[in-house]
């Protein structure tokens, strides 16, 4: 068993037991030929085992398994990680862990024996690791008989160890590293029987130690982070220069004494570092008095930079803003003190990846200003909040019940899951987010469905139907939720019987290929909504709004050519384009969503009649000299009237530009109509 076989199995499980070759190729970044190769390896490995069969049907790969939720976790529990074959990247991550925490003298001969590979392979691995660590100012030295060791700041070394530990593409490699950590703790004299459960129980107890209401994000990953650092502590003490706030001193002393009882002893400086780790994982019901001025400044700057790119304001939606406050507070500790407690889990759809690109630009701005260290996982976490801003129209009919969402991967992913469900249910339900601990406080006679990213037992659900999903809904999960909504809406709301009757009449005369779509259209017809809340991309962007040019001579010409269609229709005034040019001259490419693509806008000052969008593509691109000759290949002019009415259209634009990497070839289309249909994602 290796990482590629494990990834194929997990992707099949993620997609409900089946996936096309295209999906696997996109997610795993390997060719169809290599997927075939690993499937043959799997068939050889499976001989003599009771593991479910993987079969092929046309372009699909199917996992022949009835119990998708439990069989993989049961398999992992019983799996002997000694039989797991490490990839080169996994082996390099493990070498870093060995050098950083092992009680043994790590010499090249030791690594050759440990990984059962050649001396040349290990030498090449060490060369790759050395190059990768240079950007953190961490270096590998060799004492000769003493073996390899790290030099550099201890906080940087620990950050690298956390990154290597939390990096994994599959659950088997995760188990491999956890068992290695426990083995090293035993080598240092720890009693590891039940240690993971003891630390977990201790942290759960710590959540109730003071008056602040909070819980820990990714608790199991936090437990393993603490065990990893416990190993490192045996090898090197960290003289942490920070101080525990006085109001937290008593709680941390108590936590320190409880850790001592299970064999983990903290010096006062190490206890301070533990405090920083716990703060990095804390999800706290926010108290504005508990935020430092720098955290407040960071929050406001993130909002400011995102608004500069999108002209959307996180302040507009109270629920998102409150969750965002909590997220940034813990993110500040992770990025300021170089701590990593978990990794991003889940798939990326095109819209979410588009907002990832924007979040990356925002974090680059604030990261340099506040001296923050972040990785791609922090960008992913932040992108959830931006992607959750999409508005969903509210029908005039009253809500027909409550739906409860339980998502254990974080607040941002919970909010994004809620946004997806609102679209599917057409805002017919009041949707609430809660953690598993407080589920009893939310369940009542009006609760129609529980949507959860984890299994919940029937007793806890109290007879309410449960739908198990991922935080980024798969197409199959969307279909299942849509079908549940279609099948049950009539029993929840008698006013919908008219729609049901109409559909029955249609069935007598025709074959309905898509019942859900027909239901949606009839619901829109019989329950009209305020169209101003439903501005989609096709509502503000038309074919005649596109201009294609071979070249331009200046940025100003580029802007005017892009905005001319909007001027011709009197959607904007020339002053709006002048404002855009002034802001670009003053602040640079503030509105760059993708490399070389601007979605330019300005603060409206009675110079925009309605939300609108136009585009100019330059085949050769234009090098802007004052931006270090940055090549701009396309400029959208986004006419905005406020900070929210264009929200849906902007979200669709970002997602559609990401689809099939359209943003990379936007200026290489010969057919303008084909370009337009690609941007609005119309049938081609």
Automatic annotation (TrEMBL):
Residues covered by the PTS EIIA type-2 domain: 539-682
Record keywords, A-Z: Repeat, Sugar transport, Transcription, Transcription regulation, Transferase, Transport
SUPFAM superfamilies, A to Z: Phoshotransferase/anion transport protein (SSF55804), PTS system IIB component-like (SSF52794), PTS-regulatory domain, PRD (SSF63520)
Tagged with keyword Repeat: yes
Alphabetical list of Pfam families matching this protein: PRD, PTS_EIIA_2
Domain of life: Bacteria
InterPro entries linked to this entry: BglG_antiterminators, PRD, PRD_sf, PTrfase/Anion_transptr, PTS_EIIA_type-2_dom, PTS_EIIB-like_sf, WH-like_DNA-bd_sf
Domain PRD: from-to ranges: 290-396
TM region(s), chain numbering: none
UniProt GO molecular function: protein-N(PI)-phosphohistidine-sugar phosphotransferase activity
Record has Transcription regulation as a keyword: yes
Gene Ontology biological process terms from the UniProt entry: phosphoenolpyruvate-dependent sugar phosphotransferase system; regulation of DNA-templated transcription
PANTHER family registered for this protein in UniProt: CRYPTIC BETA-GLUCOSIDE BGL OPERON ANTITERMINATOR, TRANSCRIPTIONAL REGULATOR MTLR
UniProt name for this protein: PTS sugar transporter subunit IIA
Species per Swiss-Prot/TrEMBL record: Amedibacillus dolichus
């Amino acid at each position: 068993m290796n990482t590629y076989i494990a990834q194929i199995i997990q992707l099949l499980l993620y997609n409900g037991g089946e996936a096309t070759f295209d999906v696997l190729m996109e997610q795993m970044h390997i060719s169809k030929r290599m997927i075939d190769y690993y499937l043959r390896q799997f068939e050889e490995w499976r001989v003599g085992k009771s593991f479910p069969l993987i079969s092929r049907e046309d372009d699909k790969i199917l996992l022949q398994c009835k119990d998708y939720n439990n069989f993989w976790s049961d398999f992992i529990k019983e799996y002997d990680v000694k039989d797991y074959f490490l990839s080169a990247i996994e082996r390099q991550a493990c070498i870093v862990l060995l050098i950083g925490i092992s009680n043994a003298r790590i010499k090249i001969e030791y690594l050759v024996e440990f990984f059962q590979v050649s001396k040349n392979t290990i030498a090449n691995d060490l060369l790759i690791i050395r190059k990768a660590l240079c950007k953190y100012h961490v270096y590998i030295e060799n004492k000769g008989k003493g073996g390899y060791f790290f030099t550099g700041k201890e906080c940087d070394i620990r950050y690298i160890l956390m990154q290597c530990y939390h990096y994994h593409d599959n659950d088997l490699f995760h188990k491999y590293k956890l068992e290695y950590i426990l083995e090293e703790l035993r080598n240092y004299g720890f009693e590891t029987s039940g240690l993971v459960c003891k630390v977990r129980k201790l942290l759960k107890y710590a959540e109730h130690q003071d008056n602040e209401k909070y819980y820990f994000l990714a608790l199991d990953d936090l437990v393993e982070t603490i065990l990893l650092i416990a190993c490192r502590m045996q090898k090197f003490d960290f003289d942490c220069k920070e101080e525990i706030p006085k109001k937290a001193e008593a709680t941390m002393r108590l936590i320190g004494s409880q850790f001592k009882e299970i064999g983990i002893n903290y010096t006062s400086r190490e206890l301070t570092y533990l405090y920083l780790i716990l703060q990095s994982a804390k999800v706290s019901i926010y108290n504005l008095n508990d935020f430092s001025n720098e955290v407040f400044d960071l929050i406001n700057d993130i909002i400011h930079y995102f608004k500069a790119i999108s002209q959307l304001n996180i302040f507009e939606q109270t629920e998102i803003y409150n969750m965002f406050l909590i997220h940034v507070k813990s993110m500040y500790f992770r990025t300021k003190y170089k701590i990593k407690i978990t990794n991003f889990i889940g798939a990326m759809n095109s819209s979410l990846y588009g907002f990832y690109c924007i979040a990356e630009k925002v974090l680059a701005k604030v990261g340099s200003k506040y001296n923050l260290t972040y990785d791609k996982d922090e960008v992913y976490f932040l992108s959830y909040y931006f992607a959750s801003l999409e508005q969903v129209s509210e029908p005039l009919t009253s809500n027909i019940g409550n739906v409860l969402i339980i998502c254990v991967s974080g607040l941002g992913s919970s909010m994004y899951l809620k946004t997806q469900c609102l679209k599917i249910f057409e805002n017919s339900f009041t949707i609430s987010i809660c953690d598993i601990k407080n589920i009893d406080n939310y369940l009542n006679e009006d609760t129609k469905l529980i949507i959860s990213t984890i299994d919940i037992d029937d007793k806890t659900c109290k007879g309410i139907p449960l739908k198990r999903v991922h935080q980024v809904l798969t197409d199959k999960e969307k279909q299942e939720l849509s079908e549940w909504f279609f099948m049950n809406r009539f029993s929840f709301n008698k006013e919908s019987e008219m729609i049901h009757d109409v559909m029955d009449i249609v069935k007598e005369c025709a074959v309905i290929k898509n019942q859900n779509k027909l239901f949606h259209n009839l619901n829109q017809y019989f329950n009209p909504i305020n169209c101003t809340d439903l501005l989609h991309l096709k509502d503000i962007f038309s074919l005649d709004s596109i201009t294609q040019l071979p070249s331009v001579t200046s940025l100003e010409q580029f802007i005017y050519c892009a905005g001319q269609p909007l001027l011709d229709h009197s959607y904007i005034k020339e002053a709006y384009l002048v404002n855009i040019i002034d802001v670009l001259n003053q602040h640079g490419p503030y509105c760059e969503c993708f490399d070389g693509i601007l979605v330019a806008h300005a603060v409206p000052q009675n110079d925009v009649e309605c939300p609108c969008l136009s585009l100019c593509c330059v085949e050769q691109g234009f090098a802007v000299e004052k931006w270090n000759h940055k090549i701009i290949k396309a400029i959208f002019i986004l006419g905005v009237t406020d900070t929210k009415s264009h929200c849906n259209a902007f979200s669709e634009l970002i997602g559609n530009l990401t689809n099939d990497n359209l943003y990379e070839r936007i200026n290489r289309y010969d057919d303008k109509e084909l370009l337009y249909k690609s941007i609005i994602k119309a049938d081609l």
